[in-house]
Amino acid sequence: MNKNLAVALAIIGCSLIYGIYLIFIQAQPAYTAYQEIEEQKVNLASLKQQIDDIKAKQAAHVKKEQTETKPIYKNDVPGDGEMSAFGVMFEDVIQAAKYNKLKLYSIAYNMAPADDIVYKNIASEYNVCEIAMQLIGSYEDLKSYLQDIYNYPYLINIGKLEIKPYERDKSVLIADAKIVLYSKK
Fold first, then answer.
1. Whose C-alpha in 36, 47, 93, 137 is 20 to 30 A from the C-alpha of 155?
2. Do 141 and 90 contact (CB within 8 A), yes or no?
3. What pTM value is reported for the model?
């Protein structure tokens, strides 16, 4: 009887080992798939973090652009002709030169500056005026004038600026400037 019991136990043991082996073979792909899913969860979390970082950078960029971009002037007072579309902008640009002790040697207006990108592409929405001026003054006066133009509350573009010293007195500058004004139609 001991012999039969030993044989039965051996058969049960072999069956048990074979059963565990079959379970392991069946469970191995499931375990591998589980590990891959966990790795993909980590990758997904990393990608979500990258997306959140990009969205935050984009929002910061949009906010920065909104705060740094100057508005375009709109003259609410109806007037005759294109020149009136700029309202006080003409006066401000010229008065800023005088206020900064620059002498205004010459001035010319161009209502259709062909090389201006706004005039080329969206002239139907905006008025564009290029003011060509020749200014004479000191370094400090010119610096102060350009700072005033930069700080002007509406969009103004310095299209061209050529500076050369006066031949007789190198402390005096002659500046040829093209200031471009924009206003909404």
1. 137
2. no
3. 0.60
Structure tokens at 105: 């040697």
CB-CB contact of 136 with 148 (8 Å): no
Q: Give the tens place of pLDDT for each residue, 44-58.
A: 999 999 999 999 888
Q: Is the dihedral of CA 115, 116, 120, 121 positive or negative?
A: positive
* pLDDT score recorded for residue 3: 81
d(C-alpha 47, C-alpha 37), whole Å: 15
Among 106, 115, 125, residue whose Cα is nearest residue 175: 106
Domain boundaries, the chain: 1-69, 83-184
Cβ neighbours, 10 Å, residue 113: 20
CA–CA distance, 92 with 73 (Å, rounded to integer): 13
SS3 state at 105? strand
For the chain, how many residues are written?
185
